[in-house]
Each structure stands twice: as structure tokens, then as C-alpha cells.
Design a protein that fits this description.
Molybdopterin biosynthesis moeA protein, domain 3, 8 helices, binds adenosine monophosphate, alpha/beta, Molybdopterin biosynthesis moea protein, domain 2, 32% strand, binds magnesium ion, 4 domains, Molybdenum Cofactor Biosythetic Enzyme, Chain A, 401 residues
Length: 401
């Protein structure tokens, strides 16, 4: 069977996925990372009033000259209500305080001197100096955040600046996560002969939670057809997506494929990527199913490259912030592969530029490289890399969010 290019597999998967239509209204303090359900338009100006950008004196600059002395007719701290400026006087004013009607500039206090009878304006400001006009940040009717946008801290701050207390967001995808393997033991339990700890469950659940999912885990499903079928049909009643780890190869202990085919339908690929060749996709009773390989690094890489775009679509996200950049390789990769390779690399700043170092052990069973690294270097099919070459990398930080 020919190897399937990653893009073709993703195209197929995305064609089967529709965004969750359920929404919920939540408080702004719970909104970090949530996906906006609708565009949101400003209903007020920010700032709501002309205010001072400096501590100083508000005044009318018309017919004034450097060195003039003005009486101080009022004091306006931030939050106070300003009275109209008496002609020919200055108002003591502080940063963020409302500029009084009749004033058209603020002179910063460093350019003044308190003297007998008032304040001496050493350097007269120009019209408009140090005044932040109402609406200069946000105007009424301006689009603030758009449907499908994941809310970041600065977006939440922007909404708060408009007095918004609640937002309508897309409901979190509920993902059922099944890890298959008779050899798997939960961390915290003693390890018997022939056993290993179930690391994929914790890694995948952490990735999924980071992508804004609710995760229901089915720990260590046994390697027999009935156990896998029972777990899958139970999962399909609980969630918006089923993800499994392990058991999707073609060995006789790999039952996920047969179980999904009996309960629903399945497309199975040998993806043209390394690590991460065996990946399965299908559905059980209209619930999409994604089967990831069991080898920890394969699981990690396919989660980033396959599960992530699927979840972005499911979660209703419109923009994925994938950041692919070119950096200089600080490693040699002499073996041209028949699959696109995703090396776990670390970008280190070196004499003003970023260079990518590759971890020695790039085995699909070894997870250390992923923990050590901060990016995936994409090596095209048939390519080799010599130190100093330019390589394309996907930054983990952009893949994790
Ligand atoms: P499989 O895909 O089930 O054939 O598993 C491939 C390799 O990954 C085997 O060495 C498994 O022991 C290992 N593996 C499978 N599932 C997990 C898991 N949840 N955590 C850690 N390693 C796993
Ligand atoms: Mg297995």
C-alpha cells in the first residue's frame, strides 16, 4: 500500500468534521483560551472621555507664550469629575483624569514651576499635546473580537475595557481518550515484569486540555477485541471525538482497527511521515474517531500534526496560529528518507540568529527528544541536511495553542 501524504489525510479528515454548534455564555474570568461564538462590536468608546496622558496642568494654549504664569483654578485627580476650565487659568491634572471642557492641551509638570500665585508654564504645549481623545483606542461599532477567535489575555482585557462581563463561546469539545495495551500500568502503581507506564495518556490528555478540550480518559484498555469494542462504544456515547493511542498497526494484537470497523467505519493510512506512520480515522455512530500510534514520539508528533487541525475545526477556530519559520541547521541529517521526517529539535540563539540542534535519539519509541526540544524540523522526502543549511521548523509554542 502506498504511503499517504499528510496533507491528503488531513484534507480527508477535515472534510468529515463540522464545528461544534453548541455555545455557552461564561464570565470573562473563565474566558481564557475559549473560542468566540460570534463577532463582537463595541457599544462604547474607549477611553470614554478625553483624558490626560501626563501628570501636569490642563490649559487653553491659544494666546499663551512660554513663561506665562496661570492661576490654578481646580485639581482633577483620576476618577474625579472635571469642571469647565475658567478662562485664563490652569487645572492641576493627573494621568487618566478627565480633561476639563475648555482645555486643549496638558503641559507635563516637568515643564512647569510652581510660583507665587500659580504655575509658570516654562514650555508651552502645542494644541492637543498629552490629551488622549475619547475613542482613540476603540470606537463605537468597531469589531473587537471575531467568531472563531481564541481569546487571549489581551483580547479579554479589551473586552473588559468595554465593560463586557460575559461572552458567548463555543462549547469545549469533549474528547474521549483511550489508551490500548496490556503492557500499560498507571503511574503510581508498581511496575511488573514486561510492563511499562502509560505515558501517552498523560501526554495526550495534556495536549488536548491545552487545546481547550474536556478530556474523559479510558485508561489502559486491554488488547482484545471485545474490550476495545466495549470501550469504544461507551466512549461514542459520551463525546464529540474519540482519540485512541496504540493498537492501530496491523499486528494480531492490534484490535482498534477491527473494533472500529465492526462498530462504524474506518479509513486507515500509512502516512508518509516519520515518526507516525500508522494513523486511522473513521466514525462510530457519527462520532469521529482518530487512532494514533502507540509509540510515544509517534503519538506526540501525530497529535500535533493530525489531531490538532482536527480539533481546531471541531472547536470552531478560524485561525490556527501555526508558525513555521526557517532557521539554520546545526546538525547533519545524511539519510534521505522516503517519508517526510519531523525531527525534534531545539532552537538556540547563536551569534544573533536561531540555530536548530537535533536530539541524538530520534527513535519513535523515545520521548526524551520531544521534552528536550522546542520545535519540529520538517525534512522533505528525499532530502538530506548539512550543517549550515536552512531548515523549516514548526515551533512547539505555536503547535501547543
Ligand atoms: P502499538 O501501537 O500498540 O503497537 O504500540 C507501539 C509501542 O508503543 C509499543 O512499544 C507500546 O508498548 C508503546 N505504547 C503503546 N501505548 C503506549 C502508552 N499509552 N504509553 C507508552 N507507550 C505506549
Ligand atoms: Mg499495543
Amino acid at each position: 500500500m502506498a504511503l499517504t501524504p499528510l496533507v491528503d489525510a488531513i484534507d480527508h479528515i477535515l472534510g468529515q468534521i463540522s464545528a461544534i454548534s453548541k455555545t455557552e455564555t461564561i464570565g470573562l474570568s473563565d474566558a481564557l483560551g475559549r473560542v468566540m461564538a460570534h463577532d463582537f462590536f463595541a457599544t462604547m468608546q474607549v477611553p470614554p472621555m478625553d483624558n490626560s496622558a501626563m501628570d501636569g496642568y490642563a490649559l487653553d494654549v491659544e494666546s499663551m507664550a512660554d513663561g506665562d504664569v496661570l492661576a490654578v483654578s481646580q485639581r482633577i485627580p483620576a476618577g474625579a469629575v472635571a469642571q469647565a476650565l475658567q478662562p485664563g487659568t490652569a487645572a492641576r491634572i493627573f494621568t487618566g483624569a478627565e480633561v476639563p471642557a475648555g482645555a486643549n492641551a496638558v503641559v507635563m509638570q516637568e515643564n512647569t514651576e510652581v510660583v507665587e500665585g500659580g504655575v509658570k508654564i516654562l514650555i508651552c504645549p502645542r494644541h492637543g499635546d498629552n490629551i488622549r481623545l475619547a475613542g482613540n483606542d476603540i470606537d463605537i461599532g468597531q469589531c473587537i473580537v471575531t467568531a472563531g477567535q481564541r481569546l487571549r489575555a489581551q483580547d479579554i482585557g479589551l473586552l473588559a475595557s468595554l465593560g463586557v462581563a460575559q461572552v458567548e463561546v463555543v462549547a469545549k469539545p469533549n474528547v474521549a481518550l483511550l489508551c490500548t495495551g496490556d503492557e500499560l500500568v498507571e503511574p503510581g502503581d508498581p511496575l511488573g515484569p514486561g510492563q511499562i507506564y502509560n505515558s501517552n495518556q498523560y501526554m495526550l490528555a495534556s495536549l488536548l486540555k491545552g487545546w481547550g478540550c474536556e478530556v474523559e480518559t479510558f485508561a489502559s484498555v486491554e488488547d482484545d477485541l471485545e474490550s476495545v469494542k466495549t470501550a469504544l462504544s461507551h466512549a461514542s456515547r459520551l463525546c464529540d471525538l474519540i482519540i485512541s493511542s496504540g493498537g492501530v498497526s496491523v499486528g494480531e494484537e492490534d484490535h482498534v482497527r477491527a473494533a472500529v470497523e465492526e462498530l462504524g467505519h474506518l479509513s486507515m493510512w500509512r502516512l508518509a511521515i516519520k515518526p507516525g506512520k500508522p494513523v486511522a480515522f473513521g466514525a462510530i455512530a457519527d462520532i469521529p474517531f482518530l487512532g494514533l500510534p502507540g509509540n510515544p514520539s509517534s503519538s506526540f508528533v501525530t497529535a500535533l500534526l493530525v489531531a490538532r487541525p482536527l480539533l481546531i475545526k471541531l472547536a470552531g477556530l478560524q485561525n490556527d496560529s501555526l508558525l513555521e519559520i526557517s532557521v539554520t541547521a546545526d546538525f547533519d541529517w545524511p539519510h534521505a528518507g522516503s517519508r517526510e521526517e519531523y525531527l525534534r529539535v531545539k532552537l538556540i540563539r547563536h551569534e544573533g540568529e536561531f540555530r536548530a540542534s537535533a536530539y541524538d535519539n530520534q527513535s519513535s519509541g523515545a520521548l526524551m527528544a520531544a521534552s528536550w526540544g522546542n520545535a519540529l524540523a520538517r525534512i522533505p522526502i528525499g532530502s538530506t541536511v548539512t550543517k549550515g543549511d536552512s531548515v523549516k521548523v514548526l515551533l512547539f509554542d505555536s503547535l501547543f495553542s
